[in-house]
Amino acid sequence: MSSLLGEQAGELGSDHSRWQLYLLAMESDCGCELLFKAVGLEEDMALASAVVVRMIERVEKRDREKWIMQLPVDQRRFAERRASELSVLCEVVDGAMGAREISLQMSEWSDWLQLRVAGRSSSDSVLAVVEELARTKRARRVSGERRNSSNVADLTEPLTFHRPSGNGQAVARI
Predict the structure, then answer these.
(1) Same-domain pairing of 155 and 124
(2) Which of 22, 56, 123, 172 is a good FRET partner for 129, with 20 to 30 A between their CA atoms?
(3) Are 127 and 63 within one domain?
(4) Percentage with pLDDT > 70 across the chain
């Protein structure tokens, strides 16, 4: 793989050296097939998992599962969750999931997903929900900044938030 990428192999016994090589392969058009094979042979499961998670963010949805399958069964949980989150992110960005549905599900989302939605959605109502309900200040700030800096218009849904109140009832704002 190193010769194909035009790099010196270095000490491939070092996880740091292999990670550097894997990073080059991820960025290369010609390195992904070899990287796919290499990750299946990688003995360092943290390194293999990191490669798989990065790759499932870069490949088509239909190819995510084959990357995840390169990990041993007991090492797939995080990669499977990330693949699921990527599917949700695509739904949000494509407009297939609206603000109301997001407000009902967002408490179950990871901080990673909340921040990605804040950074990628172009829907003002979705950004408003994230600005209001996100767990982290960063996701709330990114949503607010994006709402204030762009002329994002979403007239397809009323602006409604659903957050459980102390008594278990939903609170709605328009």
Answers:
(1) yes
(2) 56
(3) no
(4) 78
